[in-house]
Design goal:
The structure is a single chain. The strands form three sheets. Strands 1, 11, 12, 15, 16, 17, 18, 19, 20 and 21 form a ten-stranded mixed β-sheet that branches. Strands 2, 3, 4, 5, 6, 7, 8, 9 and 10 form a nine-stranded parallel β-sheet that branches. The chain folds into two domains: 127 residues, Lyase, Ornithine Decarboxylase, Chain A, domain 1, CATH 2.40.37; 216 residues, Alanine racemase (TIM Barrel). It is α/β, with parallel strands linked by helices. Helix content is 30%, strand content 27%.
């Protein structure tokens, strides 16, 4: 029986073979450069996908919240890293989690460091997050006062252990010169390693963005990489140049509820609550909330003419359809939509249907 027979409402499909190819390719790249791959599981948020990752030598993972860390804590990972400036209101929850799981966090100021020093009874590792140009969060790379204040405070505790420095070069998503950004990242992490490794000989450096990890081939002496989106990829990554469309591992199956042949539009049950509202701009200035693919028993195939979701509301999506798509589609069909941002679409949908008709878990699912 085809997986398509199980679908009557918006459903996020996952192609396991594509997902595995993405995991294998990034794992080989990390090995080539002598780096450890510690993927960010905020994209898939799935224990089943975690099992696939283990087959490619992955033993540690990254998450974005303590809630997500708790979800994965029973799966015997060597370490779970929470890649978000730690929320001090969760210090007691962190300590409870650390009693059963090796865990690490990110620190960006001495105030939270002091709270953890006073709260933790179980060992927790920490990275100092560095801002080397992105501007979202982290300690400025030249702010040695803050870096050393964190390190001094951590020394007061036997349970808070310094692991190294972390940079998320998120501006690779919107700045074109990725090699320049990575040169800045390499120089920043190399400088910090040289400055502090006499006192902390085991410190490591880690970077964590998918565009750079996918496109660059010179990581200097950076020790670890922690990209996340690469496991699925999406239209944003394809536009950046991180992947090809054939590397996108998820597609939203959307029921067709109306067709307007005169306007060349198709109404589908797929809106902001399914896709999120991330958007790309078309060359003519119109908005693109997802690209249309045709579904079949083996997965999905690409159209020869471009069709895309041009507008969405909460539950509705309106497709700007090519002549080819209008001709091939009827009310009651299912169309596939490649997401603009797969992490957000997966978080909206909270589960996956594989192409062999099996449901795949998601941390936020029931």
């Amino acid at each position: 029986m085809s997986y398509l027979s199980k679908i009557s409402s918006p459903t996020l499909l996952i192609d396991e073979s594509i997902c595995r190819n993405n995991l294998e390719r990034m794992s080989r790249k990390a090995q080539k450069h002598g780096m450890k791959l510690i993927p960010h599981f905020k994209t898939g948020q799935s224990k089943e996908i975690g099992k696939w990752a283990r087959e490619y030598g992955i033993k540690e993972i990254t998450v974005s919240s303590i809630k997500m860390a708790n979800y994965f804590s029973g799966d015997s990972w060597d370490n779970i890293h929470i890649a978000f400036p730690f929320n001090p209101l969760e210090a007691n929850t962190l300590d409870q989690l650390a009693s059963k799981t090796r865990i690490s966090v990110q620190l960006v100021n001495a105030e939270v460091t002091e709270i953890l020093c006073n709260s933790l009874k179980n060992e927790v590792g920490f990275f100092i997050e560095i801002d080397a140009g992105y501007g979202r969060t982290g300690v400025e790379v030249s702010d040695f006062g803050t870096i050393e204040a964190i390190l001094r405070k951590a020394k007061e505790s036997s349970t808070l252990v310094f692991k190294g420095f972390y940079i998320h070069a998120g501006h690779t998503y919107y700045e074109k010169d990725i090699p320049k950004i990575y040169e800045e990242t390499r120089l920043a992490l190399n400088m910090l390693k040289n400055k502090y490794r006499t006192e902390y000989p085991n410190l490591v450096t880690r970077l964590g963005d998918t565009p750079g990890c996918s496109t660059m081939d010179d990581f200097g002496d950076i020790d670890e990489m922690g990209p996340g989106n690469f496991v699925f990829y999406d239209l944003t990554q394809e536009r950046i140049g991180s992947c090809q469309k054939k590397d996108i591992a998820v597609a939203l199956a959307a029921p067709v509820v109306d067709i307007n042949k005169e306007k060349k539009t198709i109404l589908v049950h797929a809106g902001g609550v399914h896709l999120s509202k991330d958007v790309l701009n078309e060359p003519d200035g119109s908005r693109n909330f997802g690209e249309i693919v045709l579904l079949n028993d083996q997965g999905w195939i690409f159209l020869s003419e471009h069709s895309y979701v041009k507008s969405i509301s909460q539950e509705h999506g309106i497709i700007q359809a090519s002549d080819e798509l209008i001709e091939k589609t009827k009310v009651g069909d299912l169309l596939g939509i490649l997401p603009v941002h797969s992490c957000m679409t997966a978080d909206c949908m909270k589960s996956y249907l594989s192409l062999d008709g099996q449901w795949v878990d998601h941390a936020e699912g029931n």
